[in-house]
Automatic annotation (TrEMBL):
GO terms for molecular function: enoyl-[acyl-carrier-protein] reductase (NADH) activity. Its EC number is 1.3.1.9. The keyword DNA-binding does not apply. The keyword Lipid biosynthesis applies. NAD(+) binds at G15, S21, I22, I95, K167. Gene3D superfamilies: NAD(P)-binding Rossmann-like Domain (3.40.50.720). This is Enoyl-[acyl-carrier-protein] reductase [NADH]. Pfam families: adh_short_C2 (PF13561). Belongs to the short-chain dehydrogenases/reductases (SDR) family. FabI subfamily. It comes from Spirosoma validum. Pathway: Lipid metabolism; fatty acid biosynthesis.
Length: 271
């Protein structure tokens, strides 16, 4: 059921790779709720994914951009305003990648050049995106920027290695830039810490299946799905959350507040 939460709003959605992507689900929900928007991803990701299919479904223009390139981001915001007919009202940052994880490097044996890439792609790209929008005055007053994160920024999960550090930086940027953007333009900036979700990116992390089951048995409501996350992000884009900013918002079925569950205790007692 659509509620018209984004009627008349314009936006930019990054990171939609395939139909498993949370960003893909957000785009479909945003369209359903009345928004117009552009889609963006890195050129290499666009070659790997099916973003053209999504663009057709949403009647959206694709603007390729490497999120680590300020020049590309300037083009993204400038062209998006031209295509959409004015400033944007919402932006989704759904960007993250760790060469160390992809190549199986342990946290105690990181390749530091790859580590810098993890930080640049997964966190500094968020600052670059916000700073570019800020300098171009590309986001309307009371606009909303949301970045996707994970609670490994607060707690240690062995398989998440240097991405945990990147997410910690990402969340800090949301607070630091959120304060400044809020003071100057009433733009709000938040992060959403989602349950482990079987996306293409998430599925590539070693041990993901076992941890997904563990989180599902720990969270009193179970794991939140990608579709449910998209619903939550849409509320953050809407005017219903105008006074919410600089927050890291857990969308994880209660996992983040649960020490141990009865289901997990029962599993342990069976061993």
């Amino acid at each position: 059921m659509a509620y018209g939460l984004l009627n008349g709003k314009r936006g930019i959605i990054s990171g939609a790779l395939d139909e498993k992507s949370i960003a893909w689900k957000v785009a479909l929900k945003a369209k359903e709720e009345g928004a117009t928007f552009t889609l963006t991803n890195a050129p290499i990701a666009m070659r790997m994914g099916a973003i053209k299919q999504l663009a057709e479904q949403c009647d959206a223009e694709i603007i390729p951009a490497d999120a680590t390139s300020v020049e590309d981001l300037e083009n993204l915001f400038t062209k998006s305003q031209e295509v959409l007919g004015g400033k944007v009202d919402f932006v989704l940052h759904s960007i993250g990648m760790s060469p160390n994880i992809r190549k199986g490097k342990a946290y105690t044996d990181l390749n530091y050049d790859w580590f810098k890439q993890s930080i640049d792609i997964s966190a500094l790209s968020f600052h670059k995106m916000l700073q570019t929008a800020y300098k171009l005055d590309a986001i309307s007053e009371w606009g909303s920027v949301v970045a996707l994160t994970y609670m490994a920024a607060q707690r240690t999960f062995p398989f998440y290695t240097d991405m945990a550090d990147a997410k910690a930086v990402l969340e800090s940027i949301a607070r630091s830039f959120g304060y400044r953007y809020g003071k100057s333009h009433k733009v709000r900036v938040n992060t959403v810490s989602q349950s482990p979700t079987p996306t293409t990116a998430g599925g590539g992390i070693g041990g993901f299946d076992k941890f997904y089951d563990f989180a599902d048995k720990t969270a009193p409501l179970g794991n939140a799905t990608a579709d449910q996350c998209a619903d939550y992000v849409i509320t953050l884009f809407s005017d219903l959350t105008r006074m919410v900013t600089m927050q890291n918002l857990f969308h994880d079925g209660g996992f983040s507040m649960t020490g141990i569950s009865e289901d997990v205790m029962n599993l342990i007692s069976k061993e």
